[in-house]
Amino acid sequence: MFNFTVTPPLSLYIHIPWCVRKCPYCDFNSHEAPSGIPQQAYVSALLADLEQELPAVWGRPVESIFIGGGTPSLFKPEAIEQLLSGVRSRVQLKPGAEITLEANPGTVDREHFEGFRAAGINRLSIGVQSFKDDLLEGIGRIHSGREAIRAAEAAHDAGFDNFNLDLMFGLPGQAQPQALDDLRTAIDLEPAHLSWYELTIEPNTWFYRHPPQLPDDTALWDMQLAGRTLLEQNGYARYEVSAWSQPGRQCRHNLNYWQFGDYLGIGAGAHGKITNAATQKINRRTKIRHPKQYLDAKAFASSCKELTANDVTLEFVMNALRLDAGFSTALFTATTGLPVTTIEDTATAAMNAGLLVSKDNSLRASELGQRYLNELLQYWLPETSDNAQVR
Fold it and tell me: What is the model's pLDDT at position 367?
């Protein structure tokens, strides 16, 4: 079925599941922290988890690491140093690998950032969401706008020239002037990267059970267009639906996801995708979700699924069509192991609908397709009665 001649690039995702307080919009595997987080025990479990993954990736270099959560910045720099030292002793880390740590402004200062940098972190992703205290309170964040500004300043002072600020728009009670003011504040802090994305209400969240009043679709689209103009005027280029960067500062780890690279996932609830060129198979593994059960485990995987050609095709386009540049047909065949004829008929139908553009052996979403990305992706969904509900 598959025909791999090479294996895709390999990344490592490390999940730290604890946070100070669960945000009402958050559907990630995060849990409010106990009085004392078992940092030492969890680091040991992560490294044991990694060891169980090694046979599937022998000899393959890891090109990026992303430590996400939860709130990884709740961990002490010493614990992060122990973790990264353990990773380096078990896998081949590519020279110059991007190593990112997520941080909440309410949990860090310059001393923390200096410690993380000494531990081997070379990129930060700071979860700001807004600089307006009333909006932050409305979405359950634990930090203030001033703390968010201080966190970005502390990142600079600690020597980080590569960090991301996470911002949302379309918050409860937010109008366009507030959204643009947030962006201006973020731009003034000179991050190398900005993630700017719309708040969406996900199942299994407090907001899903108690929906807040959000701006309507027209207001959201106007915010997005105005924000795009502002970012471009200030030297930030969009390369993915919600990702903006200064030249050469795209997030390499996330690019690997969007280009259907491979990744190991360790930690409670983490996911991984690994291609095996020898067996011509792609497997997705999921880890035990609850932190306590994960810590008590001897084997950490909760499920392992061998992907079908349909699975792979859908996953590839769901990721790659988020990129402004789309994807080349060569990338499709290299990372999926499938011939480009697999997607030709569907791509033609999407082009006829004005949602997809073909140029120089590459496919990308048109302006219309970017606005209605879910509708574009439906072209690759299996024909089921549920399709009409996918919006």
Answer: 92
